[in-house]
């Protein structure tokens, strides 16, 4: 069946929503604060009457990506699916806040290519490995160090930090409020949202 053109344009959705659809892609090691920042931003955007949604790595791993393991190929497929989903949400006019380790730069670049009009913002939650390990609420780093988890990002599998993210957040010493302030400035500068 041939695809048909959308009956509602992105511009029409932006006018109705009073903000543009966009993808904010938070990347960083496990424990870097991605989910915390994502949820705090979603709350702030909700208070600003913006339509947003958080896509979290743990959430997708229990549903849409439950069939995937943690090999390099499976990680890439996980991020491919997440990128496709995020692009659809953004096309529907939402601000999609993605919180994924997404360790490989090529996978993040592929997700970015799905979103038009410069509406993909790569946010690097920068936090030293030692701090992430201290925060290890799930015990994952300990299990990886004990050899119970193979191919764990930052320990036995690489993490490729973004070379030129749209924003780098110091999530080791900066507060969640600091992160929110920086993110809102970025969203205004990129004309995603227009409110203070």
TrEMBL record:
InterPro entries attached to this UniProt entry: APS, APS_kinase_dom, P-loop_NTPase, Sulf_AdTrans/APS_kinase
Family matches, as Gene3D superfamilies: P-loop containing nucleotide triphosphate hydrolases
Reactions this protein catalyses: adenosine 5'-phosphosulfate + ATP = 3'-phosphoadenylyl sulfate + ADP + H(+)
Active-site annotation: 102
Pathway the protein contributes to: Sulfur metabolism; hydrogen sulfide biosynthesis; sulfite from sulfate: step 2/3
Stored CDD domains: APSK (cd02027)
Keyword Cytoplasm annotated: no
EC number: 2.7.1.25
Residue ranges occupied by any APS kinase domain in the UniProt entry: 20-170
Entry's transmembrane regions: 85-106
Entry superkingdom: Bacteria
Pfam families in UniProt: APS_kinase
Residues that hold ATP according to the record: 28-35
UniProt keyword list: ATP-binding, Kinase, Membrane, Nucleotide-binding, Phosphoprotein, Transferase, Transmembrane, Transmembrane helix
Keyword Nucleotide-binding: yes
GO molecular-function terms, A-Z: adenylylsulfate kinase activity
Entry's family note: Belongs to the APS kinase family.
Function: Catalyzes the synthesis of activated sulfate.
Protein name: Adenylyl-sulfate kinase
């Amino acid at each position: 069946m041939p695809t048909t053109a959308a009956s509602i344009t992105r511009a029409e959705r932006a006018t109705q929503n009073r903000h543009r659809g966009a993808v904010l892609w938070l990347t960083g090691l496990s424990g870097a604060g991605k989910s915390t920042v994502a949820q705090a931003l979603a709350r702030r955007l909700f208070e600003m009457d913006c339509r947003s949604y958080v896509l979290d790595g743990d959430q997708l791993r229990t549903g849409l990506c439950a069939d995937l393991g943690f090999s390099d190929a499976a990680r890439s497929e996980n991020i491919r699916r997440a990128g496709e989903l995020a692009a659809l949400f953004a096309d529907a006019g939402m601000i999609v806040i993605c919180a994924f380790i997404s360790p490989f730069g090529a996978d993040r670049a592929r997700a970015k290519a799905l979103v038009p009009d410069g509406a993909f913002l790569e946010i690097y939650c920068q936090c030293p490995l030692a701090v992430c390990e201290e925060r290890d609420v799930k015990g994952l780093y300990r299990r990886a160090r004990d050899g119970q988890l193979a191919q764990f990002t930052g320990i036995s599998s690489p993490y490729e930090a973004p070379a030129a993210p749209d924003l780098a957040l110091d999530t080791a010493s900066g507060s969640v409020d600091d992160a929110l302030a920086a993110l809102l400035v970025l969203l205004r500068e990129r004309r995603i949202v227009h409110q203070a």
